[in-house]
């Protein structure tokens, strides 16, 4: 624990071709937080992640990751984009995909080292996919592919994990399994994820950032259906998290 925020945005604004996307954003994410980013389409959620990664520069304000510029500490960030740029017709194995997450982790060029392969296998173990490491990536189900892509983001042993809609296009049972894995990872890694699956947010995350040009952060316990409706501009069914008498998590 360093005492410094993992992510700190101060008065950040960003525009695309003069069109404001984010305005006067202030956001602090502490170590081992599990933050969900929610909001309407084109509200600025993915842009926010790209600012944290240093892939975009703010028009005004400051972005710090681990107390430094995002570019300086990008090696400590694992990232799973919303749309993976993988050709499913290309004959690549599960292990090959995860090894891509080691690119940039080494100062040497050339073939992957034993250290890289060990890190990739360990990442697959963390998402419970190590046994199928030699299978073609294209042969996997949607949920399995999402797990492998999370493993790719974990292969560099990051301190911060950024996930852009990791549960898109998968069924509820698989989604629950993925969130259980993320919940375990959160014991050692700070996690920030973009999601539209509000039904699962209150079951696992600690804080929710509502993004619609501006950013407002609430503890999960304070989120109400009225807040979500205001952010989305229309009626959204809010699924609340309660505890059972036995202390187990459930969504109602």
Structure characterization notes:
The chain is an alpha/beta fold. It has a single domain (7-251), classed as P-loop containing nucleotide triphosphate hydrolases (Rossmann fold, 3-Layer(aba) Sandwich). The chain has 7 helices and 11 strands. It has helices spanning 45-53, 94-99, 114-126, 142-154, 172-185, 198-204, 225-232; strands at residues 7-16, 19-29, 34-38, 60-65, 77-80, 160-164, 190-194, 207-212, 214-219, 241-243, 249-251. Strand 6, helix 5 and strand 7 form a beta-alpha-beta unit. Helix 3 (114-126) crosses helix 4 (142-154).
Secondary structure topology:
Elements lengths: L6 E10 L2 E11 L4 E5 L6 H9 L6 E6 L11 E4 L13 H6 L14 H13 L15 H13 L5 E5 L7 H14 L4 E5 L3 H7 L2 E6 L1 E6 L5 H8 L8 E3 L5 E3 L1
Parallel strand pairs: 3-7, 3-8, 5-6, 6-7
Antiparallel strand pairs: 1-2, 1-4, 8-9, 10-11
Helix pairs in contact: 3-4
